[in-house]
Every structure is written in structure tokens, then in C-alpha cells.
Amino acid sequence: MLEQIESRVAALRTWMQQSNLDAFIIPHEDEFLGEYIPEHNERLHWISNFTGSAGAVIVTRDKAAIFVDGRYTVQVTKQTPDSIFEYQHLIENPPLTWALSKLEKGSKLGVDPKMHSGAWLANAEEKVADFLELVCVDQNPIDSLWEDRPTPSPEKIRLMGNEWVGQSS
């Protein structure tokens, strides 16, 4: 598994270089911002092997860190190699704080805006504005790098009756 993760991080770094980015953030969330996401959207797991329901990774050109909350401090050490990733606490040293301490002024931090709430993006822009450039990408690089990505499973979609969801939205 170590070689596979090394290869995936290296592929992301190649993409970052081609995209003129100095770092990229990969949250656990998918475009629906749910905590529990389908297998084909487990981008954090793909890049790090971490299977927890909350976390994020930042990959820079020469460093990488994984951020988890207190529920996952043991799990992350068993699933994610410390030879590739620094272990960081998601709340005590959030990803943007870590990025500000590791990247040079003027560096470009890539994000897929579909994986973050509008409030997170606004806060991130404000937090890094004087030091980093937050760059929103059109396509998530993991989606193109993930060669054996599972296909979405339409069987798991369930329609709910109006008695459960209301008359209209």
C-alpha cells in the first residue's frame, strides 16, 4: 500500500506542477458535503488510505499532511504512512493554518470549490488573502488520476414519499 500511496501523491504533485499550484487541499466531503459519502467519492481515502468520516489532506510540492479530529488519532496512524504524511489535529491546527505556516508568501493553494461550503470558501479567502492565493479548480484532479475509481451505484438511490419529505421544496 505504501508504494501505491507514494505513487498517488507523486501523480498529484505532477498535476499541481502542470497546473501551476504549490499545494492542493483534499477534504473528506464530496459535492453534497455529507459526512458519509459513497465509495466513488472517497477522494481522501484514495490519496491517503484513511477511512474515517472526517478529515482533510494538503499536499504541497515537498510535504503532505493529514488532518483528523480526536476520534481518529489512532486510526490515522494505522492507515496512513507517516513517511508521507504529517499527522495533524483538524481542530487544533486546521489545514489552512498549517498551509500558512508551510507555504511561502504568494503560493497558490488549489481547492475544488464543489467540495467546500460557501461559508468555508469565504472564510478561507479571508484567512489567506494577505499571504496565499486560493485557486478554485474546475475539475478535481483526483477524479482524473483515480484510474480504478468505482462507478456510482444507482441501486442505492431511494425516492422518498411526500409524507417524509414534505409537499414541495
Automatic annotation (TrEMBL):
<feature type="domain" description="Creatinase N-terminal">
    <location>
        <begin position="8"/>
        <end position="135"/>
    </location>
</feature>
<dbReference type="Pfam" id="PF01321">
    <property type="entry name" value="Creatinase_N"/>
</dbReference>
<dbReference type="InterPro" id="IPR029149">
    <property type="entry name" value="Creatin/AminoP/Spt16_N"/>
</dbReference>
<dbReference type="InterPro" id="IPR050422">
    <property type="entry name" value="X-Pro_aminopeptidase_P"/>
</dbReference>
<dbReference type="InterPro" id="IPR000587">
    <property type="entry name" value="Creatinase_N"/>
</dbReference>
<keyword id="KW-0645">Protease</keyword>
<keyword id="KW-0031">Aminopeptidase</keyword>
<dbReference type="GO" id="GO:0004177">
    <property type="term" value="F:aminopeptidase activity"/>
</dbReference>
<keyword id="KW-0378">Hydrolase</keyword>
<protein>
    <submittedName>
        <fullName>Xaa-pro aminopeptidase</fullName>
    </submittedName>
</protein>
